Amino acid sequence: MFRKLCNAILFKWKGWTEEVTVPHREKCIIAVAPHTSNWDFIIGELYYGTKGRHAQFLMKKDWFRWPLGWLFRRLGGIPVDRSRKGSLTDQLAEIAKASDHFELAVTPEGTRKRVTTWKRGFYYIAKKADLPIQLFAIDYKRKRIVCTAELQPTDDFEADWKFIMDYYAKFADFGKHENSFAIDGEE
């Protein structure tokens, strides 16, 4: 029932399409970029709902206050306290290794603002836990969910990072979008 509702909202009512050629994995990191809007979360949840899948996600701890905190935790949210020291990547890699199912969605920019340097934690989690990274993009202009590449981290960080940056370079124009998901021009 939930899958049908997500399909109806995302694909039928809102007119989105998908171009996803990577296989379903029980354990992976899902990199989503560019991250330009809070709508990214809703679109991502709806898309994953159409597949009957569930992914955890990292989100700034401030979002986990009342009244939305319980909802984000229920949806798989992991609060991130940027002021705390300690290796979140090590903790998540250990959880991934010990789990039968681990899908973690991350936005490498770490913020909706334009940044010149992406956070690399998602890469190190994948490397430490021996997980593939699926490279997803939300194309607001063309109303598409795109994932046509997957990377298994190697011992050559520079080559891996270049692959990731080259893949996302073709989506750079997504950063400035007219929100085609909002209702009647609402942002």
From TrEMBL:
GO terms for molecular function: 1-acylglycerol-3-phosphate O-acyltransferase activity. One of its GO terms (biological process) is phosphatidic acid biosynthetic process. InterPro entries: Plipid/glycerol_acylTrfase. Pathway: Lipid metabolism. It holds the Pfam family Acyltransferase. Residues 29-141 form the Phospholipid/glycerol acyltransferase domain. Keywords: Acyltransferase, Transferase. The keyword Zinc does not apply. The keyword Acyltransferase applies. SUPFAM superfamilies: Glycerol-3-phosphate (1)-acyltransferase. This is Acyltransferase.
